[in-house]
Amino acid sequence: MSTNSTESNGGDNDATADIASIDHGPSASEVLPPLTQFGRTNVDGTVDVLSVDWTQVALLEPENVAQWMFYLHRNQHPQTIRLLHTLAPGYTHPGDIMPPNITPQWYVYEESGLPGILMDIVSEPDMYCLESGSFKNVAYSLEILTLLSSFVLHIASPSGTEIMVAHIVQNVMDKHDRLCEALWNHRRLMHVLPESYTFRSPYLVLPGTYGRLSSFMVAVFQQFALMKELWGGSVYPFSSYGIKVHLYTWTYFPTGDYWRALTDHHVAVMANPKGPSVVGDVMTSAPHPFPEDLIKRLCLVLRDERVEGEDVYAAVSLTLRIVEFAPEVVAQVHAPLLSKLILISLLCCQRQMCRSQHDRQVCPSKYGVKLLTLSDLTHAIVLLLRLDGRPEQSHHPMAQESYLSKQLNITAIYSVTLTLAQYEEEEGTLDFGLTEFATRAHACTRVAAVGEHMRDNTIMLWHETLDTILAALTYDEEKLIRMKTKAHNAWLAYGKVFGLTADIRETTPPAKQPSRPSDESRPAPDAGL
């Protein structure tokens, strides 16, 4: 047993839980192996480590496993890998993390502090070494991350008593910031090796493995951070490094169901007080290709028709935060890519509105997400257009592509959003959505490239939408009257910006009619994108 283990009331479990941090503990010469009945004893009374049967230790002496891991790693002993394989024998690829076969031993491992020791190990600055002869090489580091991922997944599951889970989660979360800092500092591992390169261990493949594991780890930690019942009703202060790692690994996440790594948990974390500064920091501190690669990934998600609901909202929310809090970085992105982002965002708006029309009949509860998604999309597009039109950016090639600005029919988006939002059952969601959308739509009128075009679209759609809202007010259920009245008042206020009232209908048609989508399933009034 380690000589600096702390004696306390409960014996071995408590002592193991108090093992010092790997970096700040005793030197290797001061650390002794735990006693075991499954290995030979040397003349000096110590255990012959090479003779230990790790399967028996893991099964019958689980309370000693954390101490063994501490001892083996501290002494850089080759038996460390054998112990790791004993604890996680069923993996064919570390990216395929599944919940472990739950046995009583797993609870003992967790109670004795093994997850915390694993986190200390992979947080050491000299881990992830690319030299194959180094003990702390990449293969070993990823073995530790793989096992740690299994523990985190198990801890996050509903098994076990609430008191035990809270105790273990607290121990893990206390080390989270340091782990994410290490993952961020070694993010190069996602790029330095080709996907087919194997490093010592035949089933450890980079860089996809590192990306999957680090993304998985951060996502689960986000889940922990949002479990308010564990933190006295408040959200755990999530690490800035955690947000950085999540953004970076999501950007380079292997293709496939790539959007599923970006969840509503991510959006909640990005919305915390740290969010804005962290977004700007990661955009400016990451190497040159990252900003463009992130925008490319967002384009990939927003144009994918399989992506819907909260997955779309997560991507849209991230798009807004990037444009809002890192405008100088976005301004340097290749102009055609920014044009592509605007166009894909517009198409995503149209797709979401068409789906919202269907949701009104099938699942009215989805309106809240749709409303917020359209609101954030509009805000992001407005900011992009403002960036396009700033005098100091007039040299930017984007200024030559202002025709894209005229494709933005904010009035049509707002019209459809209001028409659908009448059926939103959550009054608070409607209030927030209407306020945000109105503010952002009005901001468009101050963008020179779209002001006149926007007035033409408003003249064409305003009374049609007003009639639709008024008709709905006459026969719908009483409980929705307040909602529809709010939508009605919001639309009246919007028309007032352009000099339109319910009494006076504009008789002069716009000089040029905006194009309308040909899809017969489009909602009424037309999206006009």
UniProtKB/TrEMBL annotation:
Query: Residue ranges under compositional bias (Polar residues)?
Result: 1-11
Q: Where is this region: Disordered?
A: 1-33, 505-529
- What is the protein name for this chain? Uncharacterized protein
Species annotation: Antrodiella citrinella
Q: What is the taxonomic lineage of the source species?
A: Eukaryota, Fungi, Dikarya, Basidiomycota, Agaricomycotina
